[in-house]
Amino acid sequence: MSPNLANTNNNADARSFSAHEDYVTVLVAGQMLGLPISRVHDVFVASDMTTVPLAPPEIVGLLNLRGRVVTAVSLRRRLGLPDAESNGRRMAVGLEHKGESYGLLVDEVGEVLKLNPDDLQPNPVHLNRRWAGLSGGVHQLQNRLLIIIDVEAVLAFETQLAA
Amino acid sequence: MDDLLREFLTETAEHLDTVDVELVRFEQDPNNQAILSNIFRLVHTIKGTCGFLGLPRLEALAHAAETLMGKFRDGMPVTTPAVSLILATLDRIKEILGELERAGSEPEGTDEDLIHALETMASAEIPEPVNAPAETTGTLTYQVLERPLKPGEVPLDELERAFRETPGPDVSAPAAQAAGASVHQELERPLKPDEISLDELERAFREAPGPEPVAKAKEKPAQKDAGTSQAGAPAASEGGEGGEGALAKVQTIRVNVDTLEHLMTMVSELVLTRNQLLEISRRVDDHGYKVPLQRLSHITAELQEGVMKTRMQPIGNAWQKLPRVVRDLSAELSKKIELVMQGADTELDRQVLEVIKDPLTHMVRNSADHGIEAPHDRKAVGKSERGTIRLNAYHEGGTITIEIADDGRGLNFAAIRRKAVERGIATETEVERMSEAQVAKFIFHPGFSTAQAVTSVSGRGVGMDVVKTNIELIGGTVDIRSEQGRGTTFTIKIPLTLAIVAALIVSSHEQRFAIPQVAVLELVRVAPGSEHVIERINGTPVLRLRERLLPIVPLSKVLGSADDEMADKGFVVVTQVGRQRFGILVDGVFHTEEIVVKPMSSKLRHIQLYSGNTILGDGAVVLIVDPNGLARMVGSGAEDGQFQADAIQETESIAVADTTTMLVFRGGGESLKAVPLSLVTRLEEIDASTIEWVSGRPLVQYRGRLMPLVACDEQLAIKSEGSQALVVFSDESFAMGLAVEEIVDIVEDRLDIELVADRSDLVGSAVIRGRATEVVNVAHYLPLVAEAWMRSSSPSGEKGQSLLLVEGSSFFRDMLTPVLKTAGFHVHTAGTAEEALQLLAQGLSIDVMVTDVNLPGRSGFDLVEALRASPLAKLPVIALTMSHDPNQIDRAHKLQIAELVAKFDRRGLLAALSEMNGTLEVAA
Fold first, then answer.
1. Which of B128, B488, B613, B640 to pair with A82, CA 20 to 30 A apart?
2. Is there a single domain that holds both residue B274 and residue B326?
C-alpha cells in the first residue's frame, strides 16, 4: 500500500490529488460503506473460525487464511450494530494493520467504485459519535450515500487491560 | 552498497563491540598483556580494512587510537581518561559506520578534535623513555606544541610523528590517508628536511606499532576470530588467554540471517506437514507406510533440532554492551560498580535474544542507578565501597533463567506502597494487606518510579513496564526478590526458543486448546466414582493426588462459562508455575503435537491466558494456553499462600534414577506388600455386595465384563459387605482384581530386593520407606484365575510364537514373563547377553526377542550386534530402555531394532509386539 493512498481519509491530503480514488464497497445492515482499495488485500469467505474466549467483543475469532492467522473483526460490532441474524456465508475483507492481518467481517461485498476525492464531504455533525469516529467522510452517490471507512480507526479499538 | 563494504560493516561492528568489552576489562586489569594485544589486534584489523577500502576518516581515527594503545603496550600507565578517550573514539567510529551503512560513503566532517586529543595523550604521557627515539619524540613534541610554526626543527619532529603514526602494513601506504586532516598540513612541508631525517624515519618505522610483519602474521587468526567473535568474545572474556587458542580452531562461515530464517520457516512447515501425515496415519492402519513415516518423523525432528541450533546464540551477545554501560554509569554516578557475568555461553534462540537485549540493559542500568548506593552510603552501612551487579544465566528444563542481582539497598517497600496509593493503583488498605512480593510487582506498572530524582540514567518510569511486557511477550516471567539493605534480584525465565514447542492438545467446551508440554507434569483422569475424584472445599475444586491437595482450575471457568463451576469429569492437567502446582481441568485430551507458535494479535495480547496461537495439522487455528497467565488470572494473591505452593520434593524424587514407583498395600496379615505401580492398571474400591461367586470363584462385574478376583494372601478373606479395595491388573482383553485389605501409599524408592522368599506369591522382600515390605509376584496369581485368562486370551496367542526375554533383573523378568505369556507367547528368559547367545546357539528357535538395553556385562546392543552377524540376522528385536536419548535411538536404528520401548511401558511393549505380529504374519 502506498503511503499517499493510505492517507486518503485525510481530506486535506486527498484534495491535493485530484485523481480518482477506488473504493471497495461493502454492505453492513443495509448501509453502504467504502474502503479505500489500497488498504484491501483480498476478500474471502470467513469459515472455520476459532473463537477467542475473553477477547474484546469486536473480535469474532481467529481463522487460517492460507497458513496465516487472521484476526476477524466484526464491522457490525465496531459500529455498535447487533450481529446479523442469519449466518450463512460470512464475507470478510482482508486488511493489513501494523504488520498484522485482519479480516473485517461484513454482510456483503459490493462492487468497486471510482470516485473523485474532491466530492468527499465531511460527516454530518450529528452523526453518531461512534460512526463519526470511524468515518472519513461521505460520498453522495446517485441514489444512496457511501460512508468512507477509516481503516486505521476501525482497527484502532481499545483493548482494555485485563491486568 | 557493495558486498565488500557490507561485510566490512558487520565485521567491524562485531570487532568494536569486542573492543568495548575488552577495554573495560583492560582498564581493570592493566597488566594483562593478552587483553591488550587482543584489543590492539582488533583495532589494527579495523584500521587495515579501512585503508584497504579507502575510508580515510575511519582509518585516521583507528590509527590514532591504535597509537595510544601502542603506548600502553610500551608501558604508559592506563588511566581512566585515556580509556575514556579511546572509548569516545570508538563511539565516533561507530557513528561514522552508521552513516556509512546508511549512505554508503563516509560522512563529511573532521575528527581532528579526537585525533588531536589522542595524539596529545599518546605523546605527552610517556613517563619513562623506554628507548631513545621515544624520548626524542617526547621532548620534540613539546617543542612542537609550544611553538609549532618555527621553521627548522619543527618539520622534523612533526614528520617523525607523522611517520610514527603511519598505519598501513606496508611502507608504501600513503601517509596522507593515514592521519587525516591534521596531518595534511604537516605533509606539505616534509620534503625539505627529507634527507636529514631519513634514518630517523627508518627508526620511526621500525618502532611504529602496527605494521611489523608479526602483525601481518597475526592477522589470520584475527580474521578467523572475526567469524567466531560472537561466540568467542564472551567465552574469551571468561577464559582469559586460554580461550583464544581454542577459538581460532572453530570453523565458521557467515550466513545471512534471512537465509536462516527462511530455512527455519521451511522446517516449521515441514514439521506441520509431518504432523498432518502422522494425523492421517493415526486413522489409517497401513503398515508399509508407517515405517517410512516414522523415519521421516525422526529426520524431521533432527533437522529441526539442527536448524534450531543455528539460531542459538550465547547470551553473552546480549551482555556484550553491559560492561561498557556499567563503566560509563559508574563514572557518571560516581559509584563503584563491579559487573560479574556468569554463564555467558548459555545459548538461546536469537529471536529471544533480540527481545531481551534491551530489557536486560535496562535492568542493569536500573540496578546501577537505583540499586547500588553511593560509596559513602555503602561504607556507612558496613558494606564494601564497591557494589556488585551479578548476571547469571543457566538452562533449566526448556527454559533459560537469567538473574540480575545487585547487593544494593533493596527495594524501598514503604516508598512503593506510598507511590502506589498516590498513583491510585491501589487503595491504602489494599496496600497495607499486600505482601512484600506483591508490593514489589508495582514497579512493573507503567510510569512507576520511586527514584527521588529523575536522573538521565533512569527513574523516568518508562522501562520496567516495558521490560515486563517484552519478557512476557515471549512467554517469559520476571520475579523480584528484594531484601532491605541487602539487594535486589530479578529472575527472568524465558523459553529457549519461540519457534516450535511440543504442546498437549486439550478440549474444553468443544473447543481445542494447546498447552505447552514443558508445563505439563502429568495427566490425571477424573470422574465421579473413579479413583480420582474432584472434591470441593466451600465450592473450590481440589483433587487429592498422592496425599496432596491440588488446587483445580476448570479451564472452562477461566474461559468465562460460569456454569462450569460444578464440572467434575474430564482430565486434570497437572502443571507447575514457579513453586505453585495446580491442575487445569479440561474436558478431553487428544495428543501432543509439535506446534509452530505464532504470536497473538496485538488486539488480543492483553489476555494473559494465551501465549500465542498456532495452526494445527488439520488446519484449525488453536489458542495456546499459558499456564503462567492462567495462574496469574486465578491466583492474584498467590504469594499469600492461598494458592498453595507445593513442595517440589516430589518432582525431585522422580528425577532420581534407579527408583521404582511402588504401590504399597496391606494384605490379610500385618505386613506390608508392594507391587510396581507400572504393572497396576487401576485401583478400585468396590461395593463388596456386588461380588458374585460363580462355582466358588469370586467375580465382579467390571466395566461391562466379568473380572475374576483373587485374594492377595490366604489370610485375607474377600469381604461380602462394606467396601473392598482392589488392585486391578489388566491387558486389553483381560482384567484381574487383586483383593487387598487396604491401599496404603504410592512410594518412590530404590528397589533392592533383599531376600528371595521361597514362596511363589512373593518375589522377595525389600525395604521401602524404611519398612520391610513384601514384593508381590503378580505371576503367582495368574494361574489362580488361569482358566478365565486362557479363555479370553488375545488372538495373537493362538499362534503360540516363542519369545526370548533378555533382562538382567530377575525381578523384572518375573514381572514381564506373565505379561508376555498372557499375550500368547512362549516365553524363554535369559539374564545376560551371554546366556541369550548360548541359548540361541543351542538351537532355541524363537520368533522375536525382547531385550533390555542395559544388561549386566555386555549390553543389549552388543547382543543384537552379535545376533545380526549370526544366521539370526533377521530376527525381530524389541529393546527396552530406561532413557530415550538420541544416541540410543540412533544405535537401535542401525541395528534394525524394531522398536525401543520404555522399560516400564508394558502397554507400549505389547503394542510393539502385536504390531510386529502383523509383520511376522506377512512374512510367513
1. B613
2. no
Q: Are B82 and B71 in contact (CB under 8 A)?
A: no
Q: Averaging pLDDT over each range in B181-195, B401-415, B773-787, which range is the top one?
A: B401-415
Nearest to A50 among B598, B622, B633 (CB): B622
User: Does A64 contact B609 at a Cβ distance shorter than 8 Å?
Assistant: no
CB–CB contacts below 8 A, A to B: 71
Q: How far apart are the first and last CA of chain A?
A: 35
CA angle, A121 as apex, A117 and A122 as ends, to 5°? Answer: 125
Is the CB of residue B621 less than 8 Å away from at least one CB of chain A?
A: yes
B249 at the A interface (CB within 8 A)? no
Do B704 and B627 fall within a single domain? no
pLDDT over 50 at B228, yes or no: no
Average pLDDT, chain B: 72
Grid coordinates given for B567: 464440572
Confidence class of residue A103 from pLDDT cuts 50, 70 and 90? very high
B602 touches chain A (CB under 8 A): yes
> Which candidate from B269, B607, B613 shows the least CB-CB separation from A54?
B607
Rounded to whole angstroms, the Cα distance separating A135 from A152 reads: 10
Are residue B38 and residue B187 in the same domain, yes or no? yes
Tell me how far apart the terminal alpha carbons of chain B are, to the nearest angstrom: 69
Residue B577 C-alpha cell reads as: 508455575
> In this prediction, what percent of chain B has a pLDDT beyond 70?
72
Taking an 8 Å cut-off on Cβ atoms, the answer to whether A48 and B623 are in contact is no
CATH code for position B332? 3.30.565.10
pLDDT tens per residue across span A46-94: 888 898 988 888 899 999 887 778 999 999 998 888 887 766 678 999 9
- Same domain as B903, residue B845: yes
Report the pLDDT value the prediction gives residue B513, as an integer from 0 to 100: 93
Whole-Å CA distances, B585 to A14, B507, B618, B635, B675: 56, 10, 24, 16, 30
pLDDT over threshold 50, residue B454: no
Check which CATH number belongs to the domain holding B302 and give it. Answer: 1.10.287.560
Q: Is the same domain home to B437 and B341?
A: yes
Rounded-to-integer distance, Cα A33 and Cα A147, Å: 5
ipTM: 0.82
Last residue of a domain, one of B590, B624, B645: B645
Contact A114, A22 (CB under 8 A): yes
Nearest to A163 among B604, B608, B610 (CB): B608
Same domain, B83 and B222: yes
Per the structure, how many domains does chain B have? 6
Beta pairing class for B534-537 and B540-545: antiparallel
pLDDT digit string (tens) for A13-45?
444 455 788 899 999 988 899 999 988 988 998
Which candidate from A52, A64, A73 shows the least CB-CB separation from B615? A64
Cell matching residue A11: 481530506
Domain carrying residue B804:
795-923
Is the pLDDT reported for residue B514 higher than 50? yes
Q: Which CATH number fits domain A3-154: 1.10.3720.10, 2.130.10.10, 3.50.50.100, 2.40.50.180?
A: 2.40.50.180
pLDDT at B317 > cutoff 70: yes
Mutation site, A52, A102, A159, interface B, largest B CB count within 10 A:
A52
Average pLDDT in the B338-367 region? 83
